[in-house]
Amino acid sequence: GQQLNQSPQSMFIQEGEDVSMNCTSSSIFNTWLWYKQDPGEGPVLLIALYKAGELTSNGRLTAQFGITRKDSFLNISASIPSDVGIYFCAGQLRKAQGAQKLVFGQGTRLTINP
Amino acid sequence: GAVVSQHPSRVICKSGTSVKIECRSLDFQATTMFWYRQFPKQSLMLMATSNEGSKATYEQGVEKDKFLINHASLTLSTLTVTSAHPEDSSFYICSARVVQWVNEQFFGPGTRLTVL
Fold first, then answer.
1. Which residue of A has its CA nearest to B101?
2. Which of A4, A50, A67, B112 is least surrounded by Cβ atoms within 10 Å, i.e. has the fewest?
């Protein structure tokens, strides 16, 4: 089945630093989504990307949909303590590939030292 | 808007019993709901896709007779774990797709199931 390779798996940074994570796939997706999950909670949507090449910002977060439709990155600028959590990328399959299901990356666990 | 709730948030049960988890879309109608399972320090794995008024579509390797899904209305889907065993202990998360925004899924807060 389809798989997303998300990296890095974990990050340990100082408060105020910028963060970058990415996802790659062997499959083409028509939508890329980035979620954040806090412990014991469900994922919360951060950014949704719908067009190849699209660059979208949400506050200190910026994400891009790769031109090949097989990759995406998420950047967080000037990290703060509440950014701690697990970040997941998710690709949405085209309808013909199966009911527009989401395929998730393995997650990037972000830890911030104050 | 687009709030999804789950009940219960935590459940502990004895091996062999059945557990029902509810997923509700609170302020919108969801023609499709999805059920995921997440083991500790792992990603979300799709178990099944639930469409209102029809049978759920299960992912490969997920036993439909063990994980019963009912999507009786546009705002409610239920997952019943039948004859639960310790290996079924996991974090179960549902999501709902908004009819108008077909490309986005909104997730519930999850249900922690512990089978003793």
1. A48
2. A67
Answer for the pair B43, A107: CB distance below 8 angstroms, yes or no: yes
CB proximity list for B46: less than 8 A, separation 6 or greater: A101, A102, A103, B34, B35, B36, B59
Residue B70 backbone phi and psi in degrees, to 5: -130, 130
Which residue in this structure is represented by tokens 């997941």? A88
Which of A42, A50, A105 has the CB atom closest to B108's CB atom? A42
Type of residue found at B93:
I
- pLDDT, tens digit only, all 116 positions of chain B: 689 999 999 999 999 999 999 999 998 888 889 999 999 989 999 999 988 888 899 999 999 999 999 988 889 999 999 999 999 999 999 999 876 665 678 899 999 999 99
Peptide bond into A43 cis (omega under 30): no
Rounded Cα gap, residues A71 and A78, in angstroms: 24
Q: The tokens of A66 are what?
A: 């790769």
Per CB-CB distance under 8 Å, the chain A contacts of B105 are: 33, 45, 102
Q: Is the peptide bond before B8 cis (omega within 30 degrees of 0)?
A: yes
